[in-house]
Amino acid sequence: MTSPLLDLVQLTPTIAMIQAPNRGRFPYANALLVQDGGITALIDTGCGEATLRALQAAYRIDLVICTHSHTDHTGGNWLFDGGPIWMPAGIGFETGGSADRLVQRFIADDTLHDLWLATTLQSTGFRDARITDAYPPGHVFQFGATRLQAVAAQGHLAEHS
Question: Tens digit of pLDDT for each residue in 9-37?
Fold first, then answer.
């Protein structure tokens, strides 16, 4: 039984979209839940703390896969700290788990660092979390019969996949 906080839209027999508050607009992002081959994977954690806690109560999440390091997509990684959290290789992997490294990366004007940290962390719920694994473009995640291949999609962010 799922929680009323979980708004799941079944896309395929093994993949569901988790609809975030605010229709997935900032400071949230919709997420994906993949369940196949005895593995449950969560793609992106920006769907809000209440939704993620309901998800944790309803499912055993085996791993988290981040599409990129923006805080509206990684804001809930801290709730899964201690488990595998995957981030695209390179700058995303190097900065994605740390608010201090993200602010250094995204905000050129040092006088705005504190403001960015305060507003971004408060709005997205982001807290530092240990990113455990990096995946390169082309990497294939295998979940039973379901395969997820990382496709580089730079433009939105250098590491966006």
Answer: 999 999 999 999 999 999 999 999 999 99
Summarised one tens digit per residue, pLDDT across range 58-80 is 999 999 999 999 999 999 999 99
Kindly report the number of other CB atoms within 10 A of residue 157's CB atom: 18
Written as one letter, the residue type at 109 is D
- Judge whether 64 and 41 are in contact, CB under 8 Å: yes
DSSP string for 20-31: PGGGG-TT---E
Residue type for position 22: N
pTM, full prediction:
0.94
| Cis amide leading into 27 (omega within 30) | yes
Alpha carbons within 13 angstroms on the beta-carbon side of residue 154 total: 8
DSSP 73-98: HHTTGGGGBTB-EEEETTHHHHHTT-
Q: Which two tokens stand for residue 120?
A: 């971004």
Rg of the chain taking only CA atoms, in angstroms: 15
